[in-house]
Amino acid sequence: MDTKPLRLFLALADSLHFGRAADLCHVSPSTLSRSIKLLEEELGVELFERDNRSVRLTREGERFQAYARDTLTQWDLIRNSLLEDAKELHGEISVYCSVTASYSFLYQMLRKFRRQYPRVEIKLHTGDPEHAIGHVLSGHEEISIAARPDTLTKGLAFRPIGITPLLFIAPLEAQEQLPTKLPFSRQQWQEIPLILSESGVARNRVNQWFSERGIKPRIYAQVAGNEAIVSMVSLGFGIGVVPRIVLENSPLADKVRVLEVQPELEPYEIGLFALEKKLRSPLINAFWSLS
């Protein structure tokens, strides 16, 4: 049973934006548009009103949205029920994580899972870790790996798999615009160009660190993805903050140096995320329970 058209429809119905829905489902906007058009042709009605500026659900689209949600829920229930009676697990699980997490955490997990459940297919998607929790909450990924936020959304399960410190890093070679001796003064911190993540746990920790010291930092660049921060710092654009695990796995690790800033930034916990209700699935629970 191919449930992909329903999942594509719900992604667009929830976001009302072709670009964001396509990114969420890991397809091109043109693929998403064709899927919606085929669905409308099969139903004989328009599900969306769209122009160059906006996308809106029609009355028929709202009715079909409720049907699609109910159908996918029922599909999950019957699939889980059948899997419980099966002698050997089979099917597929979708997993989302950053490139760094894919070889620092996921590699050993997949290796062990593959040996135990050879008939289960893993669909791995990589991208910005700040989207990991959102993909799980929206139902477009079943499991993701990310940093634990300070508060967990209701209905979201978390299983810790590691802790990593957050590090201030600077270019290996001295730069004219960057001070070289620690500790930096408050004035120096306010003049140093900083390269930070756009959002997420690491950004929140950095913001809190500066706020507690009454420092208004000079943000040179805000980027998506920690790997890009290491790259920009290595080129001398400024000082950045990244998890140690990212630095240890970066091909540019020898181009930057760690600043022994005190007090240290609060480390963060990395782990698996899944919807609590999804853990009833034998497939997802098997992956979740890997030790």
Automatic annotation (TrEMBL):
Please provide the record's keywords in A-Z order.
DNA-binding, Transcription, Transcription regulation
Residue ranges of domain HTH lysR-type in the record: 1-58
Work out whether the entry's keyword set contains Transcription regulation. Answer: yes
Q: Source organism's superkingdom?
A: Bacteria
For this UniProt entry, the molecular function terms from Gene Ontology, in alphabetical order, are: DNA-binding transcription factor activity; transcription cis-regulatory region binding
Q: Which InterPro entries match?
A: IlvY_PBP2, LysR_HTH_N, LysR_subst-bd, WH-like_DNA-bd_sf, WH_DNA-bd_sf
Instruction: Indicate the family of this protein.
Output: Belongs to the LysR transcriptional regulatory family.
NCBIfam families found in the cross-reference section: PRK11716.1 (NF008722)
The protein, known as: HTH-type transcriptional regulator IlvY
